[in-house]
């Protein structure tokens, strides 16, 4: 079996695990969450984020022993490099939305091999939309193949920005807002990236995304012809946080030009 088929064969299993995780998340809606603060009052984690991550890790250990796992909540391995097969898990992307809205949050799973994205999954739990992609095989929303994106320019579409970018770099947010059709804020890097991939947005810009915020979305985005880089145009580094930009090729160039004018 070649390497690519090996990752396609994992799809059903991974999606089953994601649907199980979604059930666990939804079953918590009527319960009191145990909420803890991480780096600041807007950086929260719940018992459910932790339980979902542990559930994925248990299953990966059972089915794929020896493969390394990078998880946001710290139950996986430590990483100095991305050699071999690496799972990158964000158990709940949009934890603040999960806590405050019970809406607009996603489960994200990606599988990389020697630093190259092979399979990515973003599940928008409340919309029941499973965005997925395998390297070289296109991207899907549920069973529907996503067409290649139209290469629209900034003025032709809506751009999502992260709330951290809005509060720390309001000058940039204003510039992009003025040059585009408008700015949108959802609060889940995964869902925002999925909406760029499905053509509802033409770009998404975030001040500082962690590897698990990026990993699945980057694979899906690249399969539909989007460009996913750091905000200065250089390659994403999945061993650290990145100021990130994903957009249509034309909007990507335009946003980088705007960033340079700002300096
Ligand atoms: C966060 C969300 C948010 C983005 C933050 C991420 P989390 O992920 O994707 O939209 O602006 O940078 O950390 O912590 O909810 O998994
Ligand atoms: Ca978090
Ligand atoms: Ca996240
Ligand atoms: Ca998370």
Automatic annotation (TrEMBL):
<keyword id="KW-0479">Metal-binding</keyword>
<protein>
    <submittedName>
        <fullName>Inositol monophosphatase</fullName>
    </submittedName>
</protein>
<keyword id="KW-0378">Hydrolase</keyword>
<dbReference type="InterPro" id="IPR000760">
    <property type="entry name" value="Inositol_monophosphatase-like"/>
</dbReference>
<dbReference type="Pfam" id="PF00459">
    <property type="entry name" value="Inositol_P"/>
</dbReference>
<dbReference type="InterPro" id="IPR020583">
    <property type="entry name" value="Inositol_monoP_metal-BS"/>
</dbReference>
<keyword id="KW-0460">Magnesium</keyword>
